[in-house]
Amino acid sequence: MLFLPAAALCCLCSALVVMTAELIQDQLSLTRRAGQTVSFSCAGTDQCDYDYVFWYQKKETETFTLILYIDKSDGAIAKGFNHPQEDDFSAVKKQNSCELQIQNVKPSHAATYYCSCWKLSSGGHLYLIFGSGTKLVVTDEQVVKPVVSVYPAASRAHLEGKSSLLCLASAMFPPLVQFSWKRQKENGQLEELPPDEREQLELRESGRTAAILLVHQPENSTYKYRCYVEHEGGRVEAQTEQEVPAPAASCPPEREPADLPAVQQADLVPLDPLDPVQSECRVKLLCLLYTVLIVKSLLYCCGLSLLMSLRNKGPSTCCSHAD
Q1: Counting runs of H as helices and runs of E as strands, what totals does the chain give?
Q2: 95, pLDDT greater than 70
Q3: DSSP state of 234
């Protein structure tokens, strides 16, 4: 049998769970009341090179804890890994998947549950692959779908030749969501965004989650973007499509000579500190100014050190000639 000591295996889980998620756990969260039953699904187990599928529990303030493993060939279950609630759990095998089950949910079961198995690399090395995890929420509250809105977003990237959109999911329970985007071509067909044309940043706070999409928008394109939010209550689509705004220039264009007399009075007006374009240029000018001052200081110090060195050598040379 191919197992590791429980402590070493748990440390390995905590290091690898962020690195890879090749098993399929498509349930972001499951909400149950105390006393109900719950099942966590793990698909894609046909890619495991050994028959054992492991189930782990991860509480917010604790490390990964191995609960049990199931033999996907015959459904046999093995426990005995010192989990304090191991008797509350069972597992069943299905075609190309398996499930972890709790027949009587308790508040102490609230945690995130991960499945894992061994895989053999092309070089003959064993490594663990994981699912993305499913969070169990134990409460009497009802599941509420998120309200989804999408807006143009102003950001520093907008000044660097990129465009950005903000998708906001709010008023949902539980608060765990997952964002995805599609764009609509001129012919109306929807397509997934190529990975090399997008970046995404997620911001979470109490009651809402926002995703900022940075798009490397091709010139003269007229794509419209749709935001989708996966939630325990179902998939929610933003009601409106959004075109990305054109990227702003990094600095204002230079004025033509003919325009100078007409704008001389306007030049006397102080720069607007809230104008992102003007602020960006002022920051660049300040950086350039400080760089020049630092270089001048370094040259002055080097010159002064050279003069002091020559001055110190002068007397000793004279004395040697006198001798």
Answers
A1: 3, 19
A2: yes
A3: -
